[in-house]
Amino acid sequence: MVEASSLKMRELVFGLPEQLAEARAIADKVDYGRGGGFGRVVAAGMGGSGISAYLIHCLLADRVPTPIIPWHDYSIPAAADRGSLFFAVSYSGNTEETLTAFRQALRRKCHVIAVTSGGRLAELAERARLPLAVVPGGLPPRAALGYLFVALLAGLERLRICRSHRADLSEAVKQMAARRRVWFRRAGIVASGLQERLPLVYSTCRLLDAVAERWRCQLNENAKVMCHVNVFPEHNHNEVVGMGAPDFIASRSALVALLDSSTGARVRMRLKNVLGVTRGGYAKAMRLESEGRSRLARMFSLVMMGDMVSVELARLRGVDPVPVARIAELKRLMAEAGR
Ligand code: PA5
User: Fold this and answer.
1) Distance from the CA of 255 to the center of ligand 1, in angstroms?
2) Quick one: which atom of ligand 1 is closest to the CA of 324?
3) CATH number assigned to the domain covering 31-164
4) Is residue 208 within a helix (H) or strand (E), and if so which, with residue range?
5) Local mean pLDDT, 10-residue blocks, the chain (339 residues)
6) Going by CA atoms, what residue is nearest to atom 11 of ligand 1?
7) Does the active-site annotation cover 221?
8) Superfamily of domain 167-317
């Protein structure tokens, strides 16, 4: 059973380029409504849905003048007002935090767009005649990243928050399809390095901050392990002091540094120096460089690598990557308690 389920998640991970391409075709048919001149964008979602908003933020934050705020809570930021574009992203459409945020955004008169495969969110959006991007259902939410990410990106393009990323997306799709076998072998090696160790995943530039977070979520949910994430250079001003303690961490942690062509020379030097200064404070250190020309392709090269590492680590640990029993149980308990 574990075997069949592992293969299913592995197939889903391998299918990311095809999903991204299909997502583009789906998004092209969505009516995102009219409007422009938004002062800010807020994108609310949790877990496997919310990460799509954080990836968008990291892709665009230093490229577009409009602030894009990823949000992961019931209540929305004070800045969300009638001049704001608001995305509610929930794959199932039934996540209570996202539904509450959605209702609040309506009350604040934001330009609200729902991104979902169905559920209550789709019902509410339809009833209020709001723009609705419906993505194919039936997947674990985290395996629908391609659909959710592209639905958001296309909405931002259509409402003139950012330029078209069509060419970048097709570069990403082609590269992932061409490189996935090689990357999977590399992912197996990284997963072995992480086995029975606490993964410490470090991003070294703002493009990759959400990618590191995606690694954490995928390692948590697919491989069922804890994972720690931090970012350089901020890490060098606090965490560097704590590395290797308590004692068991020193022999039981493995570090993965995510690098990109936008990782500056000084940050690369910092990484080298940190590895030297903290030697003995971790059992193993691995460096992974993004691949590709465009920012989007580079970002997704390491998203896919992280997804692959998580399914490989699940296999090595003998766990089923698909079910997330504790998330389901928490949702059940919260629903049972009522509001
Ligand atoms: O991967 C998962 O199953 C979770 O992280 C969910 O994405 C999270 O609980 C939110 O649910 P949804 O994505 O349906 O809004």
Assistant:
1) 27
2) 3
3) 3.40.50.10490
4) none
5) 73 98 98 92 98 98 97 98 98 98 98 98 98 97 98 98 98 98 98 98 98 98 98 98 95 98 98 97 98 98 98 98 97 92
6) 95
7) yes
8) Glucose-6-phosphate isomerase like protein; domain 1 (3.40.50.10490)
Ligand 1 within 6 A of CB of 95: yes
Ligand 1: centre distance to CA 272 (Å): 36
* Annotation marks residue 331 as catalytic: yes
Please state, in angstroms and rounded to a whole number, the distance separating the CA atoms of residues 73 and 301: 29
Tokens standing for 40? 């800010």
Q: Is 237 a catalytic residue?
A: yes
155-175 as b/e: b if 16+ CB within 10 A: bbbbbebbeebeebbbbbbeb
Q: What is the reported pLDDT for 272?
A: 98
Match 């964008």 to its residue by tokens. 41
Q: In the chain, where are the structural domains located?
A: 31-164, 167-317
Residue 140 CA, closest ligand 1 atom number: 3
CB atoms < 10 A from the CB of 226, how many? Answer: 10
- What's the pLDDT score for residue 4? 65
Q: What is the pLDDT of residue 1?
A: 53
Ligand 1 centre to CA of 304 (Å) is 19
Q: Taking the complete model, does pTM exceed 0.90, yes or no?
A: yes
